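Supplementary Text 2. Reproducibility record for the structural model of the 380-residue chain.

All settings were left at their defaults, and a single model was retained for analysis rather than an ensemble. We include the record here because the model underlies the residue-level annotations in Supplementary Table 4.
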Amino acid sequence: MKPETNKRIGRYDLVTPLLPCKDLILAKFEKLLMSGQFILGEEVRLLEEELAAESEVADAVGVASGSSALFVALSVAGVRPGDEVITTPYTFDATIEAIVLLGAVPVLVDIHPHDLNIDPARIEDAVTEKTRAILPVPIFGAPCDMDPILDIGRRFGLQVVTDMAQAWGTLYNGRPIGSFGRMSTLSFYPTKNLPGIGDGGMVFCRDQEDAERIRRIRGHQAVRMNGHLYTGWNSRLDEVQAMVIRIRHARLAEEQRDRDQVAAIYDSYIPPTNRLRTPNGGQGMKVTYHQYWVRSGDRDGLRRLLDSHGIDTGVYYDPPLNHHELVEYCRVQGRLAEAERAGAEVLTLPIHAALPFADAHRIGALVGEFLAGSVASTPA
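Retained model, structure tokens:
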């Protein structure tokens, strides 16, 4: 695609990728409208089957949102009031909200500076007799180092549930990130790589029995397990969202190639020390670039420079969750120095399927020059 001069470069473009499939979406919507089957119909069933197969798990269950997916997955994993769930402070609020809503305690441990994911070396020291689960989050579509996390889970009898809201298509050691651990959860929020046009989520289950329990819970049926009665509630994926997601899924490989190309362009300008480095040297790893991040000791200066050139950027998660008001429900394990540093230094650049490659070159060149000290920021 050719860049449009004098047009501001946004972080997202939610409309352009829809244009090639607009007519098909409208035609299928009219069919759905006249069918009267609006909730948990054929589109939901087919989406569950297709994504479960691609994720290499026994089953997948569509639910109302990514947050809902987290809540029901942790419930089925046996998290109860007073339990502890070890997770990362460098993530969106929903990760700890689900834990708190279950009456459990989020335990925040520090992240690894290379990939911004939970540092497995920090997890074991956080385990107590109250620990029930580990909740890794492959942030921005980069794979967590799952082997040591799973090893800790096995040794201490802990459940591993992966919050892969930003990581559809991410691979670890050549396998889908959602195939590791007992369950994983996904969000179909419109900004995600595999999006709907509203809220929606999914839980991926390695055990068919877990999927059957979640199907009951999402439809207001109580479930008794682990000596405890869990209430059902309303968490159903609607047919319109499932239909749109299936259509977008058919085009996802092409859209992901465009993201990969933009990321490769950025990589050509940005030093490795200022960007993502994946576990195990990247062997068998696939990053899906929900966001592309760069870090700088003068993050605000870099942001002002790009803004002066009409380029939108994003700041995540500054401050990290150990500064969130919900921290009173959490336990913070040690100093979270790397999470604090990431919050202060990380800037995300535009990356989406409709970003012209020429724009990516211009952005990458500006960032590279700034990091090299050959171009100055604009005054604050």
